[in-house]
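To: structure subgroup
Subject: Chain for Friday's discussion

All,

I'm putting the inputs and outputs inline so they're searchable in the archive.
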Amino acid sequence: MPILNDIMDHEVIGPVLRQGMEIGRTEGRTEGERSVILRQLSQRFGLVPDWAKHRLEAMSIAEIDRIALRLLDARSLEDLFQ
C-alpha cells in the first residue's frame, strides 16, 4: 500500500523543512554570487589576492550585490573594497 501523505503537510515538520530549504536556497545564492564575482575580479584584475577573497567570503548577499555594481567602475581591487 503506497503512502500518500506529504511530509511537507505535517503541521510540525513541514514548517521546519520549509525554513531549512529557504536557508539552503539563500546560502546557495550567496555562494553562487561570490563565485561569479570572484571570476569577474580575476578576469578584470588578474590573480585575486587572498585578502580580497577573504573580504568577499565575509560579505553578506547585500554587500556582494553592491560590490557587483561597483566592479563596473572600480579602478583597482583596493578601490573596489573601500
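Points worth raising on Friday:
The helical segments are 13-45, 50-57, 61-70, 77-80.
The chain has one domain: 9-80.

D.
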